[in-house]
Amino acid sequence: MTMPTPRTPASVGAPPGWAALIDAVRDAGQYPTRAEAERVTRIVLSALGGHVTGEERVDLAHALPREAARLVAEQVPATRPLTAVEFVDSVAARVEGATAATARWDVSSVLSALPALVGDDLVRRVLAQLPPGYALLFGMAELTSAAG
């Protein structure tokens, strides 16, 4: 077993913990219980895991708490990228009684918590792999390249 390399003295090498991630999602989504925030987090990260590949998937897994990393890393890569709307719809299909609006809220609550935990640079790299429209789900402005 190898020891993780410290990233900052405060973290002693460990990414932010699962509890901190769940608390961030609970706050962002205003969920009444930690259990509900945890359920939503598991569903959204599992859905995301199939759509992030290569180095970005590895880096994302390393930056997330172990339990969240496992949710991302264990997913089979998707056969085709989903648009942001299709991604939200796929999450809605996994949540009993969800509507497109509640699924969009759930997705945004989880994904918008990630930049603070993993860093904007990594999120931008992940977004570069995904079809347009995901940035808003991560709580970031959608960047478009200028025609020139």
What does this structure look like?
By secondary structure, the protein is mainly α. The protein is built from eight helices and no strands. The protein has helices at 18-29, 34-49, 54-63, 66-73, 84-94, 100-111, 114-118, 120-129. Helix 2 runs parallel beside helix 4 and helix 3 packs antiparallel against helix 8. It is globular and about 35 Å long. The model is unreliable at 1-14 (pLDDT under 50).
Q: In a nutshell, what does this entry contain?
A:
This protein is mostly helical and 148 residues long. It contains eight helices and no strands.
Number of helices: 8
Order of helices and strands: HHHHHHHH
* Helix content estimate: 55-70%
Shape: globular
User: What's the pLDDT, averaged over the residues?
Assistant: 88
Which structural class is indicated by helix and strand composition?
Answer: mainly alpha
Q: Kindly state the number of beta strands.
A: 0
Descriptive key words:
148 residues; mainly alpha; 0% strand
Can you lay out the helices and strands and say which pair or pack?
Layout: H1 18-29, H2 34-49, H3 54-63, H4 66-73, H5 84-94, H6 100-111, H7 114-118, H8 120-129
Helix pairs in contact: 1-2, 1-6, 2-4, 2-5, 2-6, 3-4, 3-8, 5-6
